């Protein structure tokens, strides 16, 4: 099997992770967390969302986070934007990259963004128009690509159609989200093959939640199809508040360990990443969801690893 030589890791912990925390994380802690992540070699970090503060109070401080965090050159910081109001707020905050999102199923979309798929696509079209006018880059997400908590199985073909619509709207990259972590490697591979018939493979990313411990196996299957952009969340933080039981994303530390072990470059300093994960877990009074965060440093890289 051929694997890419380099993988871009998209860190979603500050957004996908913290959006699901029961207790609010203070803004200065979020800023320190993001600044630490920015010093690990990551090239893309999702810092927050400009969604409704009534729906996701955890990220109500989005503008303050953007204002307070450092933005070193070479790192891209996409923020989630659901509608025109979110886009106006993001523009006011001075962001230059956004991520729009839609689900592969009607029911999840309705629960997550309170609109049908058709209405959502029209709204996202308006956001895309504003993004073009203001020279803002746009990433895209399709959620529930391997299963929906309300509708069950999802056809790969419907995911591919939505991914193409996001691509046609101008998204530079479309991330396929297994929101509730139901996917397994063969299904993941079939999804990539079907979607790549509609969207260039280099424009696709994968986003696995690790609810059933399948995330790393799924990533490996997708790397074998030529995928070279993978989302992950440091310390395995996260979940989606509108998908009952959705646990954290694949832990970034575990992903980076696997990639480096396979000789795949990421540009990321694993120790600095583990330290950033430990920082946020200590601030929230919990232990890291990545086993690596718990293993003493001298035992992390045994001699037989590459
Ligand atoms: P709504 O209640 O239908 O909104 O929510 P509305 O248009 O009817 O407006 C109602 C009020 O909200 C108005 O204020 C608006 O101004 C305000 P009022 O006039 O009553 O004072 N409002 C806003 N305020 C601030 N920012 C905004 C905004 N929009 C409206 N952007 C809405 C619709 C889409 C806003 C809401 O459903 C929402 O914010 N949903 C976001 C849910 C979310 O963030 N989910 C998690 C992210 S997706 C995810 O995690 C999956 C992913 O990780 C991939 C994967 O895992 O598969 C990406
Ligand atoms: Mg997610």
Structural account:
There is one protein chain. This protein is of the alpha/beta class and 306 residues long. It has a single domain (8-299), classed as TIM Barrel (Alpha-Beta Barrel). It is built from 11 helices and 8 strands. It has an 8-stranded parallel beta sheet with strand order 2-1-8-7-6-5-4-3. α10 packs antiparallel against α11 (270-284). The protein is globular and about 55 Å long. 3-hydroxy-3-methylglutaryl-coenzyme A binds next to α4, α5 and β5.
Keywords, separated by commas or semicolons:
306 residues; alpha/beta; TIM Barrel; eight-stranded parallel sheet; 11 helices; 8 strands; 39% helix; globular; binds 3-hydroxy-3-methylglutaryl-coenzyme A; binds magnesium ion
Identify low-pLDDT runs. none
CATH topology: TIM Barrel
Spatial separation of the terminal alpha carbons:
18 Å
Strand tally: 8
Total number of domains:
1
Gyration radius (Cα, Å) is 18 Å
Structural class: alpha/beta
CATH superfamily: Aldolase class I
Order of helices and strands: EHHEHEHEHHEHEHEHEHH
Helical residue percent band:
25-40%
Arrangement of strands in the largest sheet:
2-1-8-7-6-5-4-3
CATH class category label: Alpha Beta
Bound small molecules, by name, code or SMILES, are: 3-hydroxy-3-methylglutaryl-coenzyme A, magnesium ion
Strand percentage? 5-15%
The gross shape turns out to be globular
């Amino acid at each position: 099997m051929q694997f890419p030589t380099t993988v871009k890791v998209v860190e979603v912990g500050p957004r996908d992770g913290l959006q699901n925390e029961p207790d609010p994380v203070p803004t200065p802690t979020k800023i320190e967390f993001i600044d630490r992540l920015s010093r690990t070699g990551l090239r893309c970090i999702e810092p927050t969302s400009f969604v409704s503060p009534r729906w996701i109070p955890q990220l109500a401080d989005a503008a303050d986070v953007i204002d307070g965090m450092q933005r070193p050159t070479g790192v891209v910081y996409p923020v989630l934007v659901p509608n025109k109001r979110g886009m106006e707020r993001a523009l006011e905050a001075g962001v230059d990259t956004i991520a729009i999102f839609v689900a592969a199923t009607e029911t999840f979309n309705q629960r997550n963004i309170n609109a049908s798929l058709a209405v959502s696509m029209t709204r996202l079209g308006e956001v895309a128009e504003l993004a073009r006018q203001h020279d803002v880059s746009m990433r895209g997400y399709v959620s529930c690509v391997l299963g929906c908590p309300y509708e069950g199985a999802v056809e790969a073909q419907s995911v591919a159609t939505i991914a193409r619509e996001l691509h046609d709207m101008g998204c530079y990259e479309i991330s396929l989200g297994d929101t509730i972590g139901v996917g397994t490697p063969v299904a993941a591979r079939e999804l990539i093959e079907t979607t790549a018939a509609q969207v260039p493979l280099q424009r696709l990313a994968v986003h696995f939640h690790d609810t059933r411990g399948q995330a790393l196996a799924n990533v490996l299957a997708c790397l074998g199809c030529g995928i070279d952009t993978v989302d992950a969340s440091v310390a395995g933080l996260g979940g989606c508040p509108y998908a009952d039981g959705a646990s954290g994303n694949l832990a970034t530390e575990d992903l980076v360990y696997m990639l480096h072990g396979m000789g795949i470059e990421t540009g990321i300093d694993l120790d600095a990443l583990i330290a950033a994960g430990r920082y946020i877990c200590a601030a929230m009074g919990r232990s890291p969801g990545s086993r690596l965060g718990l293993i003493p440093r001298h035992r992390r890289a045994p001699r037989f690893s590459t």
